[in-house]
Specification:
Shape: elongated
Oligomer: single chain
Distance between the termini: 68 Å
Number of helices: 8
Largest sheet: 4 strands, mixed
Strand order of the largest sheet: 4-5-7-6
Radius of gyration: 20 Å
Strand content: 15-25%
Structural class: alpha+beta
Helix content: 25-40%
Number of strands: 9
Amino acid sequence: MEFEQLLLAVQDEPVFQTGLLLSGAVDAMDVRKQLSRWTVAGKLIQLRRGLYCLAPPYQKQVPHPFLIANHLQRGSYVSLQSALSFYSMIPEGVPATTSVSTGRPEHLNTPLGVYSFRHIQPAWLTAYRLVEVVNGQRAFVATPEKALLDLLYLQPGSDTPEYLRALRLQNLDQLDTARLEGLAKQSGQSRVERVLKIVRELMREEAEEYRPL
């Protein structure tokens, strides 16, 4: 395979799997050797085994971190502080992109950022959606309610007023309280249900703060 052939095959893909290049009458060993050479030459960026993106100046678009996260671990969705920041529900950006899945926990340092994967039970793998994260790129992201509850579900000590206030939650009008309560019951964790009282109080305080005089 020549590099020009690779560009034709993947130029519209922000990230691509090796398997995309192995269909048809191709020499799989030759393709893998070429990918390794192009990575060393700086034409490709390897994100993990079998997962690549084109390097500048060949790439048409920079892959969004959420899209990369979805590809790094299949069956995952972006959640916790990463999703809360995406929805502008916490004021700061976050240094790593955090996702959840039923797979094993992982912490990956890649040339395009740091990615963390938290393990959850299959019954809790719910309430996420396909979102356009940047023009032309879509990724699976938790709903605002699930992003908050995933954090409460997975983070020890998160069920206190001090922890929740330290998050400096904002734009809480995005939360659907009925959906939030339904998901909390589904979690099966009493501490997640207990903390809803604190969340509702924060929502009330924010609504009063912005209520017209």
